[in-house]
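hey
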């Protein structure tokens, strides 16, 4: 039986042991600049702060979900054998829409709410291009203009991401673009910073009428919209009579991980049962959850938005170039960070070589080519499934497809992939000036 498409999102906020730490106003600079107000539709604010557990999905958004949902879930027996799994591995594939990733789940919701609020154009920053593509598609479907600042090194590697966004009607700029004040301060040769791309989008939106900045991963409302992944997975696994001991997703800021994992945690809390282990797989080159600090940090290069409590390696840390652009963000979402701090979320770091190898195995044995970012989750899931300590099956989210990432796989197959794990001293310098989050009793 085909599972029903969710018509309600499910929030984890009512099940947290304590409220999320409040945001802080950023310090103002000497030239009088500083805090910048980012106007959100009222409904998105409510999604971020209300203790309501279930939220009705607007009918126009459900209608668009029907174009690609429910997404496939299956037991990956060939992958299990290839990695020596001792327990079943179940794969949920979110790469089956035009954007190629889970990002469309919240892009559609945000485009709808911004349109209802009278916005005419949405502007955003993107790393690997999945979010920019999703936003371009959502804007096309809801009649909005779209502008995307994409990390230059990623756009250079994945030019067809830019082509697809342009096909969908978006204006695409390589970041640093030179068209914003924040980009003028940067070294154009660097081209690696998602924080900068987001900063450019924030600045551009603030200077133009009826234009709004939108973001796809770390915000609490975005993670709420992604709950459709886990809600569907719960239905699909129930039909398979599958017992799950661990849920795994990759983490840039945390939306696909939150989407697949948090509904299981909410169900466990609501029923008083012990839920599955929640495992966030991050890049070893951007190890905020495994080697970062829990502190207040800025979310973009302008430093104009609110300072958020997050696990971070420092927003000013120069993240090394890598094929997994979607994971190269300095901090984790404040919701995911709070759950990591409370012990409800575990984290592991995975090298891009291991991630690409896991992606190769899924393609060879399951005929699904995952994005390199998703390879981190697959590699972590393989380790867990092969461990003698694991009980119950492992559910893993393939957050996107890898058909626009074949250059990364070619580099891996040719033996050219190298990983740059941050030195301890460099991380210590990057977080030295941050205010740590005080632990509440």
């Amino acid at each position: 039986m085909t599972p029903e498409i969710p018509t309600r999102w499910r929030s984890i906020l009512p099940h947290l042991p304590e409220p999320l730490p409040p945001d802080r106003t950023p310090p103002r600079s000497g030239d009088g600049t500083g805090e910048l107000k980012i106007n959100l539709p009222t409904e998105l604010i409510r999604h971020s702060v209300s203790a309501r557990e279930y939220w009705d999905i607007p009918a126009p958004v459900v209608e668009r979900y029907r174009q690609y949902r429910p997404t496939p879930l299956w037991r990956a027996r060939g992958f299990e054998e290839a990695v020596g799994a001792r327990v079943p591995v179940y794969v949920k594939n979110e790469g089956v829409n035009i954007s190629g990733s889970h990002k469309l789940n919240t892009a559609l919701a945000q485009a709808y709410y911004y349109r209802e609020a009278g916005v005419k154009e949405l502007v955003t920053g993107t790393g690997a291009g999945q979010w920019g593509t999703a936003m371009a598609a959502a804007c096309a479907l809801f009649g909005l203009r779209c502008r995307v600042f994409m990390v230059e090194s990623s756009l250079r590697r994945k030019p067809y991401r830019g082509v697809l966004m342009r096909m969908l009607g978006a204006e695409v700029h390589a970041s640093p673009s030179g068209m914003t004040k924040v980009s003028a301060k940067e070294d154009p040769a660097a081209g690696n910073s998602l924080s900068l791309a987001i900063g450019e989008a924030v600045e551009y939106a603030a200077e133009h009428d009826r234009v709004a900045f939108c973001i796809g991963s770390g915000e609490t409302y975005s993670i709420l919209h992604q709950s459709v992944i886990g809600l569907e997975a719960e239905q699909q696994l129930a039909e398979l009579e599958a017992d799950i001991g661990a849920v795994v997703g990759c983490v840039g800021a945390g939306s696909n991980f939150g989407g697949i994992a948090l509904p299981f945690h909410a169900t466990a809390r609501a029923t008083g049962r012990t839920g599955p282990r929640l495992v966030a797989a991050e890049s070893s080159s951007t190890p905020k959850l495994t080697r970062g600090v829990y502190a207040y940090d800025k979310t973009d290069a302008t430093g104009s938005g609110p300072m958020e409590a997050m696990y971070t390696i420092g927003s000013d840390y120069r993240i090394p170039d890598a094929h997994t652009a979607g994971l190269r963000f300095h901090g984790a979402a404040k919701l995911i960070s709070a759950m990591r701090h409370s012990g409800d979320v575990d984290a592991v770091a995975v090298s891009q070589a291991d991630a690409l190898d896991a992606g190769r195995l899924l393609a060879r044995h399951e005929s699904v080519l995952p994005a390199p970012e998703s390879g981190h989750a697959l590699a972590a899931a393989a380790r867990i499934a092969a461990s003698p300590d694991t009980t119950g099956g492992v559910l893993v989210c393939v957050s996107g497809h890898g058909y626009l990432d074949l250059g990364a796989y070619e580099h891996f197959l040719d033996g050219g992939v190298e990983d740059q794990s941050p030195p301890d001293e460099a991380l210590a310098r990057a977080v030295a000036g941050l205010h740590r989050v005080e632990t509440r009793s």
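The two ends are 47 Å apart (CA to CA). The chain has a mean pLDDT of 92.
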